[in-house]
């Protein structure tokens, strides 16, 4: 039909899906750029997936993460370019539609390369779990736990928020440990101060989808099962060709 020969929705949809994957890879790449800095120190990249600086001998560049981050702009551009080509085309086939091939093939090539490169980078990286644990156990991160503790004791959240916020401000201003201030506080005391001990705050996150160890293990198992299903489907599609 006239509509069928002029339709390129399937190309636009494919380019959107690829562009969205690119956006997610870009976010992932940015996290790795930050995690591998000296300031964060959460991970160290393998030499095979990084380069040295041309000027700074001590510097290791997260090239794969940066390139994956940059590829997202190219993928978004391919999608935008095709949509602009399709805009205002009349029914039936138009020569303009020949322009659908280059962005589609390029996007497939670029996202495939980015996925393989990032996969290898992550698989060979070494994680500094001590640095990650230290960051997760920062005392000020337990402020929300303190407010929730007060709410459980019957205090309205607005009041609990203000109460804990005042202690946090004093801790920062006077360079005093938040745990010491909490322990000395009449409304909080030693029981509340225990919420600021290493590992306690993270372990309290037990709801489904939470960031604690228990839901984390469950989510990991769910993702593993989903990946197995996807691999099975992909293998079946490849075998059917």
**Which residues sit in consecutive blocks of at least 5 with pLDDT less than 50?**
none
Q: Distance between termini? A: 28 Å
Order of helical and strand elements? HHEEEHHEHHHHHHH
SS strand fraction: under 5%
Q: How would you describe what is shown here?
A:
There is one protein chain. The chain has helices at residues 2-6, 9-35, 63-86, 101-124, 129-136, 143-152, 157-174, 178-184, 189-193, 200-203, 213-239; strands at residues 43-44, 51-52, 60-61, 126-127. By secondary structure, the chain is mostly helical. The strands form 2 sheets. A two-stranded antiparallel sheet has the order 1-4. A hairpin with a 7-residue loop joins β2 (51-52) and β3. α2 (9-35) runs antiparallel to α3 (63-86), α3 runs antiparallel to α4 (101-124) and α6 packs antiparallel against α7 (157-174). It starts with a helix and ends with a helix.
Can I get a quick summary?
The chain has 241 residues and is mainly alpha-helical.
Q: How are the secondary structure elements laid out?
A:
Blueprint: H1 2-6, H2 9-35, E1 43-44, E2 51-52, E3 60-61, H3 63-86, H4 101-124, E4 126-127, H5 129-136, H6 143-152, H7 157-174, H8 178-184, H9 189-193, H10 200-203, H11 213-239
Antiparallel strand pairs: 1-4, 2-3
Helix pairs in contact: 2-3, 2-4, 3-4, 6-7
């Amino acid at each position: 039909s006239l509509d069928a020969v002029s339709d390129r929705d399937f190309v636009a949809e494919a380019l959107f899906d690829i562009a969205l994957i690119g956006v997610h890879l870009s976010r992932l790449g940015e996290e790795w750029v930050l995690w591998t800095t000296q300031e964060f120190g959460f991970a160290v990249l393998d030499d095979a997936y990084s380069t040295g600086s041309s000027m700074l001998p001590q510097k290791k560049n997260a090239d794969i993460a940066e390139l994956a981050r940059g590829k997202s702009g190219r993928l978004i551009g391919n999608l935008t370019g095709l949509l602009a080509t399709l805009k205002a085309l009349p029914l039936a086939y138009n020569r303009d539609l020949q322009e659908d091939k280059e962005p589609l093939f390029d996007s497939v090539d670029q996202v495939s390369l980015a996925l393989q490169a990032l996969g290898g980078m992550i698989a060979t990286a070494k994680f500094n779990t001590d640095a990650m644990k230290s960051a997760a156990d920062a005392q000020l991160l337990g402020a929300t736990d303190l407010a929730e503790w007060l709410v459980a004791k019957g205090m309205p959240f607005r009041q609990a928020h203000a109460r804990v916020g005042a202690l946090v401000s004093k801790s920062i201003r006077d360079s005093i440990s938040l745990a010491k201030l909490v322990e000395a506080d009449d409304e909080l005391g030693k029981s509340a101060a225990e919420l600021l001990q290493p590992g306690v705050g993270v372990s309290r996150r037990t709801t489904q989808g939470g960031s604690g160890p228990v839901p984390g293990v469950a989510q990991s198992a769910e993702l593993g099962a989903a990946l197995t299903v996807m691999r099975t489907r992909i293998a079946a599609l490849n075998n059917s060709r």
